[in-house]
Amino acid sequence: MMESLFYGTGIFCFLVVFGIFIFAPTKGQTRIWLWSALKILFFGALFSSWFTENIVLKWILIEASTLFGSLLISSSGTEKSFQVGWKFLLINSYGLGIAFLGLVILLFTSKPVDSLDFSALQLGLEGQTGLLIKTGLLLTIYGYSAKLGLVPNHYWVGDTYAESPSQISSLIASFVPVSVALALRPLVQLEREINHSLINSANGLLLIGILTILYSTWILHRRDDIRRIAAKVALFHTGMLAIFIWLDVNNNVFYFLLASTLIVKVIIFVSMGILRMDSGKRMIAQIVDLNSINQKSFYGYFFAIIIAFVFPLSPVFILDMEMIKISLDRNLIWLFSFPLMGLIFFFIALNKILPIIRVRNRDFYDSQKTLLSIRLGFLIISIVVGLLIGTFGMYELVTGGFENV
């Protein structure tokens, strides 16, 4: 059930992003059909990677999304967008190159296998614990973590999410992390089976996940840009994704986590795009100095951040409750710190954006009314779907459907 929920959420999120691009594009967007084709290719590559166990094909599909993503980032046609697109391409390709080297080492070390499926590789490595296997896993996990956007390879995340059109940001922020998480999870599980030492790649993923959460929280208080704030929200949740991968939660929790990641990031970036278009500004101080804005655009962004952290029926809140339950079941009391860090992040972000509430309300400008109304409609639908997912998660949590193993 949860797996189907994840796939359905993925299709829904793509249709929301694609629909906004087709029916409510920004003024600077030209050659709509060309960029639409690239969006479909980007989504198709990552969506296809969800269904294959072939470790090489999965890597190829994720790498293909890097090329398509870099082209989409540069769709604005500005010098800044080209620079950001190159940074995205270089850092992601660097990480995936390391991951591919790790896969080659694992295949070289393995006994002869009938296929390139992960299950076949796992059988080929059965009973082996040598240095080559550990090195292969280290390189693969570290390489994929760069694509995930974790510290210390997080530098592409801020610029990509903050400098791209909001539809591109939401597409990349939503689909790249969940696709990489699907590739990482079996590798982390294999590492746990092979390497029982405290110093291993799985614990390394935990460490850089924690560092990513701490970094995003620390840097947030220095940001007064609604785009950068949205980027830091996405980065924080990527760090939390790494924590859940390390926890090796059961399939129900894992697929609910992926569905939550998709819908919450779409809500964040769609709402940010509406506020950015309506105000014509991205710096909070500049928005506060305006004579008026449409307060619907502010409350959309405001409610999106609430959903991303503390709203009781949001999927993120359910996952925080599940993490607390896991901490009690496994006697890992230190896990309590992560929901608390989410609260700290939320209150910092809230303190940043609340001054906008004082700006006088007005209607959308006539020149933007149709576009922003369409975007607002997509946002409302996304929020409703997100809350329905959260409600379903609450039911599963209360009735034991998330029961941990």
From TrEMBL:
Its main location: membrane. The lineage of its organism: Bacteria, Pseudomonadati, Spirochaetota, Spirochaetia, Leptospirales. GO terms for cellular component: plasma membrane. The keyword Oxidoreductase applies. It is found in: Cell membrane; Membrane. Signal peptide: none annotated. It comes from Leptospira ognonensis. The keyword tRNA processing does not apply. Keywords: Cell membrane, Membrane, Oxidoreductase, Transmembrane, Transmembrane helix. InterPro entries: ComplexI-like_HydComp, ND/Mrp_TM. GO terms for molecular function: oxidoreductase activity. This is Formate hydrogenase. Residues 54-339 form the NADH:quinone oxidoreductase/Mrp antiporter transmembrane domain. PANTHER family: HYDROGENASE-4 COMPONENT F (PTHR42682).
